[in-house]
Amino acid sequence: GSTGSGVTVPKLTNGTAGKTTRYWDCCKPSCGWTANAAQNGKVDLDALRSIQAAEALVGFLEGNPKLPWPAQMRVLEALGSIRISMANLPRGKLDVASVVMKVLADPDSNFEVRSWAAWALGMMKVSPTVAPFNFGLIGEEVGQLAVEIGDQIVKEFDVNQANFERQKIQAEHLTSILLFQVYPAIIGEDGARDSGLIHSPHPNFGTSKIYLTKLDGLVKGIARGSYELIRAGGAAAKDRRNELDAKLAELKKFLAQGGPKDRRLVPGGPEFAPVAGQQVAGAPGP
User: Fold this and answer.
1) Phi-psi domain of 234 (left: phi exceeds 0; alpha: psi -120 through 50; beta: other)
2) Helix 96-104, helix 135-160: angle, nearest 10
3) pLDDT for residue 27 is more than 50
4) pLDDT, tens digit, for every residue of 170-179?
5) Which bin fits 51, alpha (ψ -120 to 50), beta or left (φ > 0)?
6) Which residue in 44, 28, 36, 45 sits closest to 11, CA to CA?
């Protein structure tokens, strides 16, 4: 699929069957099967199958706090592919979105894991019965993640400036995260209907539309600026670095203006702290 910036991503293929156990390495075939069966969110599984898979994956993620990060990524990819944000179970509601939001908002998780959490949240379909749903809160965390990754790309350039052409592997990796997970969380994936925060048909999305539309442009600028930096050569690289730094400053200013008053993703869910350096001044919430 496309990232929305003209880059085509090959389809994930050759998945294998498996089952989830308490051992993290068993998750790889199970999660891969789920993501493949749903074609990374492009095909809807039947409701019962989806709920069962979501329950197993959430239980696995929450029941293994020391899960190695590659396994966390696979679980989050599978949850995004299933596209369930919440489900009714005999013993109560399964709040998939809040579980994934905890990962996105966790500063101790690495960029790779948080980026897949952002992608998963952007892929989820939110039922109109789940209201209000705080789209602005997700957008705020996605924006913060883009800032942190962009800052690290600038640092990579500054440290390796004398020989950046040969020492930009980490910067390239971080740029790929922006292009293929972080920005698609906002804009969605080609072929996955209603994917991406700004494409949600949820009835209360309108209250966050202006905020998320502005965020879309700013995060897109970070992703594009990062790509242009790693593609630049010679003296032009320094110019691209400064342009990216300016785009980062603009996004930081936007985020600092104030986050949503409501710090819960869903009614009755856990509260999430404001991003670093931010005043909660009543930006659009649900």
Assistant:
1) left
2) 30
3) no
4) 999 999 999 9
5) alpha
6) 36
